[in-house]
Amino acid sequence: MRTPDWLGECDPGAREPVKVRLDGGLDPAISVMAPQLARRIVPADQHVFAGRIDEAVPPAAFPAPPLDDRFWDGPPSQRVTLSGALAEWSCDAVGWLAATVADSAAHVGIRTSVLFTVVRG
Question: Could you tell me which residues are beta bridge partners of residue 84?
């Protein structure tokens, strides 16, 4: 999370609209902590991901979890969705976002598994 500058050289035209779904399965921590989590994920001093909580995105906008619910705290039911723009659509940018989400979740006290899904659009 402390290294957003390595994506700072990206072409502004490469910004890609994305939707990010964070799901805590049966644990309500994601839903309860959503505002604090969103503030940590989208701080003002970085330009890799700019977004906001978006309650209007339907669950069908995301693929089904690629794993059986026994491997995490599923089924998906406690979720928050962020809509925004990523610096570019690349493994590096998505990886940075995933690491930022994990770090942010730990900092706000979420101690359950979190299913992270990001899609274009």
Answer: 18, 51
In a domain? residue 42: yes
> What are the pLDDT digits (tens) for 11-68?
778 889 999 999 998 999 998 999 999 888 887 677 788 889 998 898 889 998 888 8
First to last CA, the chain: 23
Tell me if 93 is assigned to some domain. Answer: yes
Q: How far apart, in whole angstroms, are the C-alpha atoms of residue 74 and residue 12?
A: 37
Rounded distance, CA 102 to CA 37, Å? 10
- Distance between CA 30 and CA 18 in Å, rounded? 19
Please, which residues have CB within 8 angstroms of residue 30's CB and are 6 or more apart in sequence?
Answer: 22, 23, 24, 37, 78, 79, 80, 110, 112, 114
Q: Tell me whether residue 1 is in a domain.
A: no
Task: For tokens 């991901």, name the residue.
Answer: 49
Identity of residue 119: V
Domain CATH for 59 = 3.30.70
